[in-house]
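seq:
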Amino acid sequence: MEIQIDPHTLERAEERGTNEEEIKDVIKTGFAIPGRYGRMGRAKVYDFNRKRHGKFYEQKRVEVFYTIESSVIITVTVYVFYGKWEE
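struct:
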């Protein structure tokens, strides 16, 4: 299925510490999470092991929310959380 990344999503990605490659990876290989307003969501935890805004984080969790229209996945937004998650 084709993935169309909305410009708003790319803007948020840059601000929040992810990129187009990770967004596509989350959609393809992440686990399902609940979305609101009829949207779908997927998330994935990545090893990070570096500082962000002066604080060290072991991992980051990228969450992508999207809709599907005519067999095209269209992203709505992306969130990135930093910390440590159990596998």
